[in-house]
Amino acid sequence: MAIWLTLCGAIVIVAYLLGSFPTGYIAVKQLKGIDIREVGSGSTGATNVLRTLGKVPGAIVLLIDALKGVLAIALAYSLFNYTPLQNFIPPTVDANLWEPWIVILVGLAAILGHSKSIFLGFTGGKSVAISLGILLAMNWQIGLATAGVFAVVIAISRIVSLSSIVGAVAVPIFMTLLHQPLPYILFAVAGGLYVILRHRANIERLLAGTEPKIGQKVEVEAEESLNSAGTT
Fold first, then answer.
1. What gap in Å lies between CA 219 and CA 199, rounded to an integer?
2. Rounded mean pLDDT of 104-132?
């Protein structure tokens, strides 16, 4: 049992480190020689990269961040479906019961890592892109439905933060409608609330009517830079 619990703990730590990989920070540092946390909104996510470097780098960062989420969940599933690791599952452990709980712990660790990266002094992005990757790996229908909600809202409003917030609200609804396991529904609620909280500065600007739309530049006070930001 000790070995099994150690493996579970190790996967959670690896998921956090995967989430912590600072894709946006590295991209801007390498291509422009600046710290993205000192530019625009101060976020390391794809939206701030888009504003700083352009569409192609922004899209690449978005893709890599989403893939981090997919890989984290794949590692969680490997504990229960990869034969060499299955050999460590104790006879007293019900894999069907444990799997969804381990999956959500891994998902939450990856989300936390993206927004509180150990490599960047516990700063980061808004965890939207990595959350999408996690959803796609957990249930591709829910992942695509969430992406669809995001696409519709952004097409109407042209505001990325609003699209991310509405998407976060939609995830628990989709989880419930598609009769997902209770741990997945709890993950959707917790992850959605976390993403919304990460957008609290954006919400203030939305209410004030000052939140920028796609293509617009935004100036953010230095003290907001650590909390506000791009959307991933």
1. 16
2. 94
